[in-house]
Write a structure and sequence with these properties.
6 helices, 22% strand, two-stranded antiparallel ribbon, 41% helix, alpha+beta
Length: 142
């Protein structure tokens, strides 16, 4: 169980996600690249710092690599920079692929992570409460 501000979030784990083993090398390479927004976000969530939740960084799912993945919530977290501005069709296909496994997706803008990380983390907290609490509990307020 995950507890966020007196809300108990039940786990929602998706097992046996497909993984292209050929992408593991690129995932490791991406972790080492040190993209600033990802590093800033990672420093705030690694080792259970964010409500005790464990995050994976640069997780391979199928033929894609996601920025962050929360296995206990089946949650993909993407930090989108300007490279995503002209890839709407690709991003939609990718997101639909993740959703086909029951995964939820939280997106944050690169500039927001760099300029107002606490706001991004507050939005992530609120997203988790709204998306994962049973409806009767979530309606009681955030």
């Amino acid at each position: 169980m995950i507890i966020i501000e007196s809300h108990t979030i039940p786990p929602k784990s998706t097992r046996n996600l497909p993984e292209n083993p050929n992408l593991r090398f690129y995932a490791r390479k991406n972790r080492r690249a040190g993209i600033l927004a990802e590093v800033l976000f990672w420093k705030q969530v690694q080792n259970g710092k964010f409500y005790g939740i464990n995050f994976n960084r640069q997780k391979v799912i199928g033929n894609y690599i996601v920025d962050f993945y929360v296995p206990s919530l089946s949650l993909v977290i993407e930090i989108d920079g300007c490279s995503h501005n002209y890839k709407e069709d690709y991003d939609l296909k990718r997101e639909n692929y993740f959703r086909s496994f029951g995964l939820k997706i939280f997106k944050a803008a690169d500039r927001d992570v760099k300029q107002n990380l606490s706001w991004v983390l507050d939005n992530l907290r609120d997203f988790i409460i709204l998306e994962y609490l049973p409806r009767s509990s979530a309606e009681g307020g955030v």
